[in-house]
Design brief:
This protein has 242 residues and is of the alpha+beta class. It has one domain: 4-Layer Sandwich (Deoxyribonuclease I, Chain A). It has 7 helices and 12 strands. Strand 6 and strand 7 form a beta hairpin. The protein is globular and about 50 Å long. The relative contact order is 0.14. This is Endonuclease/exonuclease/phosphatase family protein. Pfam families: Exo_endo_phos.
Length: 242
């Protein structure tokens, strides 16, 4: 599953809905959850927002259902920070956050985790992505993603890359297929990436799940109810077989 948490707030930051989001994510029950825009800490919100958890948001979301989690801090500001996170029912034996920010105030990252599944001799690699809004930034970030795959992921290892690509022009598919051997699961199943943004009336295919050395089945865009008020991006789910 991949979902942009929007720092635990509804669109335009009108209401704090992280507890509702946690229940919805738990209902899906995915083995691995890729999170973008997840809050690490925020001192002002902690003092002013009702029901603000004491733990970082990724720990609050993991709760007792996902015993393993990793966090990659991307954006840091005077009162706190946020970034990408990965929740896993399998052991995370290694993780590394790659800063792929290009220029200016927009901070982006790629969180690379290595998962150890029972009975498997080859570890599974998972990369949680959140790319930039500018086309030129995304192109450079996609190149960096390909370098990470080449340098850090064994050629025979199963790989899942998921997250918010902000790729409304569909430029990522050909590059990732050619240079990293990655195939997008909705595109493979339905011929086109899923439309996910804005969640109330999805028009743009911003969110993706790519795989290599794995097969994807039954990719699904989660329905508007209850998700359209829990995130400004519609979450994606797919069954991955290794």
């Amino acid at each position: 599953m991949t979902v942009n948490t929007h720092k635990g707030f509804t669109a335009l930051n009108r209401r704090f809905i992280l507890p509702e989001l946690r229940e919805a994510v738990r209902t899906v029950g995915a083995d691995v959850v890729f999170l973008q825009e997840v809050m690490g800490t925020h001192s002002r919100h902690q003092q002013r927002v009702n029901n603000w958890p004491e733990a970082p948001h990724y720990e609050f979301l993991a709760d007792t259902m996902w015993p393993q989690f990793a966090y990659g801090r991307n954006a840091v500001y005077p009162r706190g920070h946020h970034g990408n996170a990965l929740l896993s029912k399998f052991p995370i034996v290694h993780h590394r956050n790659h800063d792929v920010s290009i220029a200016g105030p927009e901070k982006r990252g790629l969180l690379h985790c290595v998962l150890r599944l029972p009975g498997r001799t080859v570890d599974v690699h998972a990369i949680c992505a959140h790319l930039g809004l500018a086309e030129s930034h995304r192109q450079q970030q996609l190149e960096l993603l390909c370098h990470i795959v080449r340098d850090e992921v064994p050629a025979d290892a199963p790989l899942v890359v998921a997250g918010d690509f902000n790729d409304w022009r569909n430029r990522a598919h050909a590059l990732l297929e050619e240079r990293a051997g990655l195939f997008e699961v909705f595109r493979s199943a339905r011929g086109a990436a899923a439309r996910t943004f804005p969640s109330r009336l999805p028009l743009l295919p911003l969110d993706r799940i790519y795989v290599r050395n794995a097969q994807a089945h039954a990719p699904v865009v989660l329905p508007r109810q209850p998700w359209s008020h829990l995130s400004d991006h519609a979450p994606l789910v797919a069954e991955i077989s290794l």
